[in-house]
Amino acid sequence: MKHHGKVITIERHIIEEERKHPGASGDFSGILRDLTLAFKVIHREVSKAGLVNILGMAGRQNVHGEEVKKMDVFADEKIYQAMDHGGHLCVMASEENEDVLQIPDQYPKGKYVLLYDPLDGSSNIDANVSIGTIFSVYRRVTPSGHGTMQDCLQPGYKQVAAGYVVYGSSTMLVYSTGDGVHGFTLDPSIGEFLLSHEDIRIPKRGKIYSVNEGNYRWWYDGMKKYVKYLQQEDKATNRPFSGRYIGSMIADLHRTLLYGGIFMYPGDERHPNGKLRLMYEANPTAFIVEQAGGRATNGKDRILDVVPTSLHARTPLFIGSDEDVAECEEFLQGKRQLT
Ligand code: AHG
Ligand code: MN
Ligand code: MN
Fold first, then answer.
1. How far is the CA of 250 from the centre of ligand 2 (A)?
2. HSE of 326 in the Cβ direction (CA atoms, 13 Å)?
């Protein structure tokens, strides 16, 4: 570890990364700095979520007499508020909002675009299960002024940065600007994200698969066969794999990034495009996983090559260790059969 023994805050890390690129405008450190503020606020609220009842706030009003917001709406607003005035962005889009989110007229418009899923896995909150936030950053394509839908609807390979936060047993931020993947753990006592996982590489092969198997009945043939294959016994290929499914994509993805294996949300007979959103969930995680040496596909094409046609479109997703995902693709495409 080249930083052994030093305490590296995320801010320092970004500044040092930017110095490697002479002429960098510093926009990036600005964007990340503003984002981390929102993440810390969300972390604080998420870690208090269980107290809401005890503190008597469940009666729809908090101590200030305000309506208690659902946590995903709260997170959505915190991110927007942290990002609307910095002058780095020209437009935003969030999983929680139908339309693009404009920068208020009184603030300058910048060169970048932010897309985000403010709270991923929100149905898990009440059970104290890990949840997350996902974001991705693009360079604008329109020349100036307010950004537009065109700025938001770019294929994933155009991302200049992406990342996620997982609010788990500790809160971690993982991000990439196209130069590897780095993980930071929040030290709540000083309120800083500190470098804890430098240059994360996903194992080429894993031994864990992650999918909602309750949908088995509606899966297509190739998918059924692939999962049966993973359950067969074969020492040479580490099978059977273990099954793990948290139901918060970011928590499942984070484990997959660190331990290897494959996370899947396939299309099926009921939902041909699956459930997850291309712009808010698939693209940013595909960017991270590829940067870590892994692979992400919709079963036919590389996720990052898909040209988006709408902000909230869903996509099947198969993501994780390079060799596992490649093998999965062969089954999905009928190039491989069970033996
Ligand atoms: P969100 O909370 O942002 O709507 O996302 C929920 C997603 C994702 O986190 C998870 O992988 C998936 O829903 C789980 O879906 P199933 O319950 O259908 O397995
Ligand atoms: Mn989500
Ligand atoms: Mn969400």
1. 8
2. 9
Distance 7 CA to ligand 3 centre (A): 32
131 membership: H or E segment, kind and range: strand 131-139
Q: Which atom of ligand 1 is nearest to the CA of 252?
A: 11
- Residues 141-193: tens digit of each pLDDT: 999 999 999 999 999 999 999 999 999 999 999 999 999 999 999 999 999 99
* For residue 56, pLDDT beyond 50: no
**287: its two tokens:** 């960017």
Q: pLDDT (tens digit, 9 = 90+) per residue, 191-247?
A: 999 999 999 999 999 999 999 999 999 999 999 999 999 999 999 999 999 999 999
- Parallel, antiparallel, or unpaired for β 208-210 and 242-243? parallel
pLDDT in tens, 14-48: 888 888 877 777 888 899 999 999 999 999 998 88
Cα–ligand 2 centroid distance for 120 (angstroms): 4
Would the CA dihedral through 191, 91, 26, 303 be positive or negative? positive
- Supply 98's token pair: 């139908």
CB 49 within 8 A of CB 71: yes
Give the domains, in start order, of the chain with CATH numbers. Answer: 10-197 (3.30.540.10), 208-332 (3.40.190.80)
Distance CA(248)–CA(118), nearest Å, equals: 13
Cβ proximity of 154 and 138 under 8 Å: yes
C-alpha 71/C-alpha 61 separation (Å) is 14
What would the two tokens of residue 142 be? 């329109």
d(CA 288, CA 200): 10
DSSP 8-state secondary structure symbol assigned to residue 300: S
Query: What b/e string do you get for 43-56 counting C-beta neighbours within 10 Å, with b at 16 or more?
Result: bebbeeeeeeeeee
d(Cα 193, Cα 8) in Å, to the nearest integer?
A: 8
With cut-offs at 50, 70 and 90, classify the pLDDT of residue 81.
Answer: very high
Task: Choose which residue among 76, 256, 276 to substitute to test ligand 1 binding: the one with the highest number of ligand atoms within 8 A of its C-beta.
Answer: 276
Q: Which amino acid is at 300?
A: K
